[in-house]
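Any chance you could type out some protein's one-letter sequence along with its backbone structure tokens so I can compare the two?
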Amino acid sequence: MSKKDYYEVLGVSRDAGENEIKNNYRKLAMEHHPDRNPDNPRSEERFKEAKEAYEILSDPNKRAAYDRHGHAGVDPSMAGGSGAQGFADAFGDIFGDIFGSGQSGRSNVYRGADLRYNMDISLEQAAHGTETKIRVPTMETCDTCHGSGAKPGTSPTTCPTCSGHGQVRMQQGFFSIQQTCPKCHGSGKIVASACVICSGSGRVKQHKTLSVKIPAGVDEGDRIRLSGEGEAGVNGGPPGDLYVVINLLAHPVFQRDHNDLHCEMPISFTTAALGGEIEIPTIEGHAKIKVPAETQSGKIFRLRGKGIKGVRSHSQGDLLCHVMVETPVKLTARQKELFHELETLNQEDSARHSPRTKSWMNKVREFFTE
């Protein structure tokens, strides 16, 4: 499969300047970065393409070579070869990729797999930050054989098939096909007596306890990266990373919306009609709100700076209190009598005392008379 044109990958013309190339690369890198697009192979591929294109076009010498000769001008596998041999090496790399081999002349060294840990935290922990310990399963280097896979007292020997390169090459004319060595499976080593603990793999499944610091302001879906705490690499490769993914537990009072908090605030008929002062909870403690007379259900009171300060925010969010006028229940006979009396008084001048009801009824009449 041929590579895409580097200029097309970055979305720039061939006479684009350094700043345009840099700016387009930054936009693509931010949009398709793996941390922002977990489990999205297409975004990961786009990120790698943009990175490769920028590495070539940001270097004046490499860019000049690319402009003259295309991908062949910047392909390391084409350097140092000429004629049929250079042609064979180029096709060797292509067919090597098809058959799954690694880089020419090198053993198959693999980075360890990344791990994901879903952590449930409360809203208070997210707002103030916390530090906790987690226990995660992982593949670690075998302590008995120190990752060699060989029984203690013995050592792996060089693979006789590939002479320790981890790859073999088949030559037919000037076509060269390179593939993983079938004898050592790319490691370049042969284990005659396998370690009984890891069965020759060089890695064992273990559990480890890690301390995780949760910064103040984290939100749902945020990821905390613990570098090098993933699975151990293969054949001496570097370890992967551990990603702690935040999951906010439901709160009995507040609902979070980015840096703002929302809550429902029930008030009585009396307070709604006559006004008053009520105390409400906040993430930091308590606050008082003055409810003006004739407050309607659904009115929102905003308390500035009573929300959450996000990890990347410069200011505190707000607390939005949604008024819910509560209808009294289980009325006594006296209460019912008073409500009937109040209703009678309201009916004497309903347009004044219930303007929204009058407006709504007028709209209903207009609807049915059209």
In short: Residues 79-107 have pLDDT under 50 and may be disordered.
